[in-house]
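User: Predict the full complex structure for these chains.
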Amino acid sequence: MSETPEEFRTYRKEMNERLLATDNKVIKRFFNLDTNAYLDGALPAKTKEMLGLVSSMVLRCDDCIKYHLEKCMEAGLSTAEVVEIFAIANLVGGSIVIPHTRRALEYWNLLEETAG
Amino acid sequence: MSETPEEFRTYRKEMNERLLATDNKVIKRFFNLDTNAYLDGALPAKTKEMLGLVSSMVLRCDDCIKYHLEKCMEAGLSTAEVVEIFAIANLVGGSIVIPHTRRALEYWNLLEETAG
Amino acid sequence: MSETPEEFRTYRKEMNERLLATDNKVIKRFFNLDTNAYLDGALPAKTKEMLGLVSSMVLRCDDCIKYHLEKCMEAGLSTAEVVEIFAIANLVGGSIVIPHTRRALEYWNLLEETAG
Amino acid sequence: MSETPEEFRTYRKEMNERLLATDNKVIKRFFNLDTNAYLDGALPAKTKEMLGLVSSMVLRCDDCIKYHLEKCMEAGLSTAEVVEIFAIANLVGGSIVIPHTRRALEYWNLLEETAG
Amino acid sequence: MSETPEEFRTYRKEMNERLLATDNKVIKRFFNLDTNAYLDGALPAKTKEMLGLVSSMVLRCDDCIKYHLEKCMEAGLSTAEVVEIFAIANLVGGSIVIPHTRRALEYWNLLEETAG
Amino acid sequence: MSETPEEFRTYRKEMNERLLATDNKVIKRFFNLDTNAYLDGALPAKTKEMLGLVSSMVLRCDDCIKYHLEKCMEAGLSTAEVVEIFAIANLVGGSIVIPHTRRALEYWNLLEETAG
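Assistant: Here is the predicted structure of the six-chain assembly.
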């Protein structure tokens, strides 16, 4: 893996700022909505982050997976819980999810080291 | 909607039996695994059904959505909780998820009537 | 095709109302954003509807295709223009787009009859 | 299933003719290429039809599946062979392929009856 | 981003030549068709490039996005126009398109520098 | 291409081991099933690897493509045969498969050199 969690966050932050600086209202409101959707509601934020993670996995978006793994760690998920999400993602999405699962586990382990 | 929950279940059951009757070991074991993945573990079955529902929505599989809606109702989810799952699915998967959300809400309402 | 343009519109309208009646803020704002994204801006609304149509085709969402075909007809697109959008969708998305193209042409022809 | 093999073929043929009648060169050549790709070459036509079937399944296109099932029957595939293709499609594409597999088996059985 | 526009073009060109050198007729004709689909017709080439870009974004193909961004710059699109295409792609395709949008904006900015 | 076949295999092996070491039963059985699905049966293993390759291509999973290319080489496929699989994948999956085809051919050529 070529990218550390720190590098991922820096690139993500910088490019999000550049995108918002284009001053496109639809993109601004979409980003805002994306943040709001994961707040506590009828379902707790922790559950919503799990929903975000499994969706990112079945849709096979590595950067989205990394982002939600960070949120899942902040929300206090255990490795066993995260791996059960991986299992469902593999079953629903099939063996094409396996390479993303390998990278997801590697990133989760990197986050654990940093957090340790 | 042309199909009632009853019709959906009947067709699903009959064709699953026909598929298993072909005696293909990989399919048999895959179906078996599909059942096991949603049992209580590090995560409770209820959470796993939510994961199954949101995955089915972002992958836009109407029959999978119906199946997981039934399981979510059995698991005791409220309408407000289910609709928050719809919201995340729409945000992650985009406006192409909207038509599936319309059908999902209709089916959920049908299940409520039957259960009522 | 089992559904007329009139039936499609009625179902769509009724279920959208039911969805909005659940009073989920994220869904409400997402629907609102979906309307705003296609208004005149740096690009004219007509161009944006074409973008919506081709996106719906490559993502193979029949209901989204119908919706954007209606908008494209309102925006005054000719059949030759619509068919060129079909062509690009087929090329980019591959032969799995063909069945959706058949249904799209049928729906476009139905809209022409109604408009005639 | 609402549609017989006969109805499927009739609709498919009529709409393909209507599409070709629009006289769009890209679509004409794309359809032509689609036919040529499955002819005998380094790989026999029979193998290519299997490739077309499994691709249609993992991409979850019911009409494409029906079309390739017809071709696979013409090419002399046995039910055991077709079901092994189903198994690989389920494993690669995940449990979201299951509903399409149910409909695929039903259609295959209908084709067997007609051929019988 | 590890790859400059120049490196992208070089790799793309070299591998396309190697692919065509395999002398597979279907691939040759498919590549040829791919070029023809974007020529002026009922719709101008500029509009077609926008259709190609939005399709590539909702299907989340970074290399296809880069290619169409180059074509869009050659066709004279402004940044505001390109960003409106990004907005529609995000809305239709959902938040999983965001990481591709970050990379798309970065590439567009690189193209602007080169062109400047 | 940043990764040699050797690097790909090493990373794949290491991370698969780490995944299996999490001791999640569903993942273990899914991996096991994934191996079994490609064994000789009604269809020979060689045909099944071709099915795995074409599925990986239309689903645009580069790592899956590499894996099945290795298996196809072990199974004795010729370059002409592999390229015909590429052709069908491009036709079914569309021009978004082209970038994956470029990388697939490069990887195939690397495998040929190593095997040579």
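The helical segments of chain D are 5-21, 25-36, 45-58, 62-74, 79-93, 98-115.
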